[in-house]
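Priority: low. Protein: Helix-turn-helix domain-containing protein. Input follows.
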Amino acid sequence: MTTIVNARIPAEEFALHHTLSTVPEVEFETEQIVETGDDVVMPLVWARGSDTEAIRQALEEDPSTDNVDVLAEFDDELLCQMDWTGQVQLVVQMVTNSRATILNARSEGDSWEFKVLYPTRDSLSKTHDFCESQGLTFEVRSIQVMEGEPSGLYGLTDEQYEALATAFEQGYFSVPRRAELNELAADLGLSHQALSERLRRGHRALIRNTLRASPGEE
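Result:
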C-alpha cells in the first residue's frame, strides 16, 4: 500500500553539510531531485539567506557538490541546479532500489526533513534495512497510509477532504464568496460550528503537509 513518510536525516550525513556549516543562516529546499546514476543526484534547489554571495562561494567549495549553476536570483533567494556527488547514497537507494518519490526535502538547522512517497510498505523497509547496514540515520517522524483517496497525500481525514472540496466547488473560497458557511453545513448535514472546526483542522493539515510550516503549539 502506498505510504508517505516524513523523516529526518542529520545534516552531517547528507549533502551540503559544508555549506550549512559555513553559512549557518542558509536554508535549502528542493524543487526536484533526479538520480543520474553512478551515485550522483542532480537536484533543483532553492537556497535562502541574506548573504547570497557567501552562499554561492560555499556551494562552489562544498565537497558534496559539482557543476553548481545559479539559474535565478531574487533578493535573498537563489535557484540553483547542481550535482550532489557525496553523502547521497541514501537518496540514491530511495529512488532506485526502493522506487520512492521524494516529494520534498528541506534543511532544518542541523538536519534535513524529507517527505517521501513509497509505493509499498516493503519498499520503506528496504530503505530502513539499507540505513542499518550502512550506519545511516533515517528517523521516521510520521507515516501516512494512502488508501485510494487523495486525502491521504495531504494528511487530511476523509471528512476534512470532503468539507474542503465541497467548499471549493461551491465557491466558498471565491472572491467574492459564492456560498456561505450555513449553506455548506446544510448540504453536508453538519452544524455551522462543526463545519467551521472541520475546515480549520483541514486548513491546518494542508499547511503543515504542503508548506511544511510548524504550528506554534499543538
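The mean pLDDT is 88. The first helix runs from residue 17 to 22.
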